[in-house]
Design a protein that fits this description.
By secondary structure, this protein is α+β, with helices and mostly antiparallel strands. 42% of the residues lie in helices and 12% in strands. It has helices spanning 2-10, 18-29, 40-50, 55-76, 81-85, 98-111, 177-183, 199-207, 212-218; strands at 113-117, 120-124, 140-148, 151-158.
Length: 226
């Protein structure tokens, strides 16, 4: 859903609050960070460089998931719930461009946050906070705070003393090499080889905990946030 919203917002920035409008305009100018957007030859060379032969398989999963998401939103949901609830999202026929959809999906994957909230999880985007680079664990922490009746804010706290001019970073999580390259477009020396991560497996586990009504509507799709 975030991908569809950003595609629509790109052509309707005048309808958005100023800060969000500038953020969407910035995303529109960015290239996808994911190696899934690279040519196959470049991916193969990167796999050799990082010594992780699982990279191409991860890329194929990401590409297949993107194609499935496109079909879900524009072929199935586009004829039912989304087009009925959010008709403005489908005003621009150019939204049906698969390349643009893929670009925004990879951008969202690299920039959206997931945070445990009670017994479940919350997925969201936090413009500005998503510019923090990956760093060592234990330097900062993310949380949700109540800021008023029915209102909540995302808060990033420093968990160590930072010196003047020292970069504040955020730990992205214990991804394996291929997963990090597909999600964020980079790998670091401490990352390990294939850890068996699978978006499809994570989605299946999530779906098993959701009500039957939701499963019936979204079966075969991806995480609702995407």
């Amino acid at each position: 859903m975030l991908v569809v919203f950003l595609l629509w917002a790109e052509s309707h920035t005048q309808d958005l609050p100023p800060l969000l409008s500038r953020y969407v305009a910035m995303l529109a100018e960015m290239d996808s960070p994911s190696v899934a957007s690279w040519p196959d030859a470049a991916i193969a060379a990167k796999a050799v460089e990082v010594a992780d032969p699982s990279l191409m398989a991860y890329v194929e999963r990401a590409r297949n998931a993107t194609s499935q998401s496109f079909l879900n939103y524009f072929s199935r949901h586009g004829q039912h719930s989304l087009s009925t609830k959010y008709p403005a999202l489908f005003e621009d026929t150019d939204l049906l461009g698969r390349a643009r959809f893929a670009k925004y999906r990879y951008l969202v994957r690299s920039r959206f946050w997931r945070l445990k909230l009670g017994a479940g999880w919350m997925s969201f985007m936090a413009p500005g906070m998503d510019f923090f680079n990956h760093g060592e664990p234990g330097t900062t922490s993310l949380g949700i705070e109540a800021t008023g009746p029915g209102l909540r804010s995302v808060v990033l706290r420093a968990d160590k003393e930072f010196g003047v001019g020292e970069e504040v970073t955020f730990y992205y999580g214990g991804h394996c090499i291929a997963d990090s390259l597909v999600e964020y477009g980079f790998s670091t020396p401490e990352l390990q080889g294939c850890c068996g991560c699978s978006g499809a497996r994570i989605w299946a586990a999530l779906m098993s905990r959701l009500p039957q009504e939701f499963r019936s509507e979204h079966e075969g799709g991806e995480e609702p946030s995407n």
